[in-house]
Design a protein that fits this description.
Rossmann fold, 11 strands
Length: about 180
Amino acid sequence: MVYVHLAYGFEELEALTVVDLLRRVEVPVQLVSVAGEKMVKGAHGIGVEADVLFEEADYNECQMIVLPGGLPGTFGLRDHEGLCAKITEFAEAGKKISAICAAPLVLGKLGVLEEKKATIYPGMEEHLAGAQPAQGRVVKDENIITSQGPGTAMDFALAIVEEFCGAQVAEDLRKDLILK
């Protein structure tokens, strides 16, 4: 199970692209609200209904935590104590974590990027505390995948697909979606 986390003001393109691509290849994925209610409005006013509230989510079943960016959504993720505890727990156990756009700043704040290569929305590199900033559209270092922003959402989602299904499935999906 992959958990994609939603806070008020999340970047809709980044969150929903991950969900869409994972469901296309039958990887179980759920939207998890940290906003206290299932209906969460994104940065562009699009309301999305989460599958579960954070308090209902079973992190024993979760194989990857996904953090979409967007503002102020990223700050909602950063300030959610329960989610931050789970991210720290996942990092310490070497479990999979991914973040896109501004959201890698949450990982920087928690110290889980120490000595790892990571990327973030251009101009926000100072928030990658302890990381080795990298400029790639998607950067994978061990158990952590980071990406730069809305324009890299497909590449980010495909990297997550590859993590669960392998390179061939990700490449076949890329071709089906007519991505270069």
